[in-house]
Each structure stands twice: as C-alpha cells, then as structure tokens.
Amino acid sequence: MTLKEFFLNDRFAVNAGVELLEVSPGHALARMLITPDHLNGGGVCQGGALFTLADLAFAAAVNSHLVLTFSTTSTITFVQSVAEGYVYAEATELVNHKRMPYAEVKLTNAQGQTVAIFTSSGYRKQDAHIDATL
After folding, report:
1. In what order do the strands lie in the sheet with 85-95?
2. Nearest 5°: phi and psi at 129?
C-alpha cells in the first residue's frame, strides 16, 4: 500500500472531498473542490472544511517518514474567502524532529492566491510504524 492509499482511510477528509495528490519526504499536496455543501450561511467555504483540507496535507507530510504521527496543536489563519473552484493545500515540514515535527500548510485558490495559512505540531509514536511506501 502507498501512503496515498493509507490516507484513503481518513474517511472524514475523503467524505469532505479532499484528494491527496502528492507525497514526498516532508511534503504533501492536497486539494478539495468547493461545492455548495461546503458553503456556510454567508455563501463562502466553511472554515472547518478548509481546516480539514489543511489537516490532511499536514498529516501526509509528517507521516511521510512512515512513523505514525498525530497532530498536537494546530492554528489556521484565514486571509481570503473562497466560494467555488479548487483549493490546494501544500504542506511543508519545517522541523523533522524524531518526536515533535512542525509543519506549515499554505492553502491557495485556483489562481494561486493565499486563502489561509495553517501551522501544526505533531507527536510521533516511535513504536507505531505505517506499513506503506511513498
């Protein structure tokens, strides 16, 4: 199984429409097509949907070392709303620590404009390896 296939088990993200496009050591790219089901009362994409997209990209980047890693804290800053089209989440692991990695995820719209910035730290379970390949 590949790591992309492993993340198909993230049912919440899959059901939200998140697609994992790329995974390499310390890096991941995901996207989500905004549909009417993603919109809030104001007619723009609900923040939780964007958080889910960013969280999956984070998870793929930090789990790319095949040691099971969970988020411990996350922060998202929304800088521009989006109501349609694809939103992309590019995750970059900034700190590849054996126990506490740290990554940044930049969310952009189809025109490449920043929609949100997400940062997160994680905890690596040293005795829990993921049976997958990149």
Report:
1. 18-24, 27-34, 85-95, 102-109, 114-129, 67-78
2. -95, 145
CB atoms within 10 A of CB 52: 22
By the 10 Å C-beta count (0-12 exposed, 13-18 middle, 19+ buried), 27 is classed as middle
User: Rounded to two decimals, what is the model's pTM?
Assistant: 0.98
70 in Cβ contact with 128 (< 8 Å): no
Query: Of how many residues is the chain composed?
Result: 134
Distance between CA atoms of residues 124 and 62, nearest Å: 9
Residues 6+ apart with CB under 8 A from 65: 25, 26, 96, 124
Span 12-45, pLDDT tens digits: 999 999 999 999 999 999 999 999 999 999 999 9
